[in-house]
Every structure is written in structure tokens, then in C-alpha cells.
Amino acid sequence: MLEERRIDLKRLAARLTAPRFSFGGADDLHRLLGARRGSVTPFALLNDVRHLVTAVLDAAMLEYDPLNYHPLVNDRTTAISAADLLRLIAASEHVPRIVDLTDLEHAPDIPES
Hints:
The protein is of the alpha+beta class and about 110 residues long. The protein has helices spanning about 10-15, 25-35, 80-90, and strands at about 55-60, 65-70, 80, 95-100. β2 (about 65-70) and β3 (about 80) form a beta hairpin.
């Protein structure tokens, strides 16, 4: 999703008709995607050869060119066009769910004065 989005995960789960979910633990991230916390990107789908992960993409991010992601390590960044990202996901034999997340955002926390 767009980096500035703050999404209500309960509402996202309902939109996706998915069970309650949260961010994956370090062991699961490594086992399923070959990635470490802070380094999970769409490129990690190439490591999911059993197709246990479903990619969910923010529709709005696909309007940007280029898109920037970590290449499985978070001390580097690489750029890819939205069209090439979709081709890469298809080449990994995954079918992404492209979702409009606009109405799932929640207001940022505003500190009390």
C-alpha cells in the first residue's frame, strides 16, 4: 500500500473476507517468504513456491511510476514500474488482489495538548 496509509486491519480483514490477521512473525516471514522483518516486499512472492501467500495491493499505488521496494534486504531500494510489478507477480504464479483502500484509512493519532 502507499507508505503514508494507516489502515484499520479489522476493516481490511472484513473487506477481504479473511479471518482476523496481523503482521507475520519473524519465523513465518522467513519460512514463507524468505524475508526478514522490515524487508518484506512483493519480490518475496518469488520465494513462495507453495503459493501460501496472497498478495493484496493498494489500487492507488499502481498509479505511481516507479514503485520503490526493498529487494529482500532493507539497506537497499530498487524501482519497478507498476506494469512490471504485476508481470513479476504473475510470473511467480500468484494472483494479486487489487483493493481500493481509501475508505479503510483511519485518522492519524493526534497527541493531546
